Amino acid sequence: MYSFELKKADSVANAAALLAQSGGKPLAGGQSLVATMKMRLAQPGTLVDLSGIAELKGIRRDGDNVVIGAMTRHSEVAASKIVRDAIPALAALADGIGDRQVRNMGTLGGSLANNDPAACYPAAVLALGATVHTNKRRIAADEFFKGMYETALADGELITAVSFPVPKKAAYMKFVQPASRFALVGVFVAQTAGGVRVAVTGAASSVFRAKPLEDALAKSFTADAAKTVKMSASGLNNDLHGSPEYRAHLISVMASRAVAAAG
Asked: What confidence score (pLDDT) does residue 151 get?
């Protein structure tokens, strides 16, 4: 790990100012950034610690939305009665991220800002049609994820919270890569007020919506309908864990299981 300076922020405004002054990187839970720094794949001269910012934490119900602060830990989302009552699929997703250490340290905002191709939270945000709140604006889920480790966030822009609309039905299923516990393929299915949305993580360079599955489930929200969809392998990942064709098959299988779990 290269040397760096650590600065602690006590407010969102203070964090933004420190980032602008230093050109550094924000530090949320550190589950991704610190690991890349240890391998010398990242070399930020300054880290701005967000852990002391109270306004970035917490979970509340706001009408038909559940609003979760960016610095809320995965374990807190999983244990929240508000989340479990309103969007149990989101609580279950959070409870299945990584291992206990990751769940106790990793944060919602850190996961979304990093946008790992196999992260679980992006699938929930995209499938539920959530809104990402930052210190500068609000970004719709469909506009937020841009590519591998790439989002719509500008330099120095901080996620402050995420608003999740409460769906009629929803569920998340993932086929776990056993070594990393990331999703080899993860599928979040949601029946929302605006229609059926299906988001896939782990299968490609970034999370994406599966339109063929959405179309099929809009006609018949059943496990059988999802199972009959043949997803294209074009553009899907090809590595030692699975071919594009294998991942395409898994998308339909996981979608079918998610629909069955949603009820």
From this structure: 97
199 phi, psi to nearest 5 deg: -120, 140
Check pLDDT > 80 for residue 181: no
For residue 147, what pLDDT is reported?
A: 95
What sign does the dihedral 213-150-244-186 (CA atoms) show?
A: negative
Average pLDDT of the chain is 95
pTM over 0.85? The answer is yes
Q: Which CATH number does 54-165 carry?
A: 3.30.465.10
Has residue 164 got a pLDDT over 90? yes
Burial-class residue 176 by CB neighbours within 10 Å (0-12, 13-18, 19+): middle
Boundaries of CATH 3.30.43.10 in the chain? Answer: 5-49
Tokens of 85: 């009552």
CATH code linked to domain 5-49: 3.30.43.10
- Alpha-carbon span 148 to 33, nearest angstrom: 15
d(CA 115, CA 241): 20
Give yes or no for residue 226 having a pLDDT over 90: yes
β-bridge pairing 46-49 and 25-27: parallel
Q: Are 204 and 117 in contact (CB under 8 A)?
A: yes
Residues of each domain in the chain carrying CATH 3.30.390.50? 169-262
Torsion sign over Cα 24, 25, 27, 32: negative
Domain 169-262, second-level architecture: 2-Layer Sandwich (3.30)
Q: Locate CATH 3.30.465.10 in the chain.
A: 54-165
Over residues 2-37, the pLDDT tens digits come to: 888 899 999 999 999 999 999 889 989 888 888 888
The residue with tokens 């924000």 is 26
Q: What is the pLDDT of residue 1?
A: 78
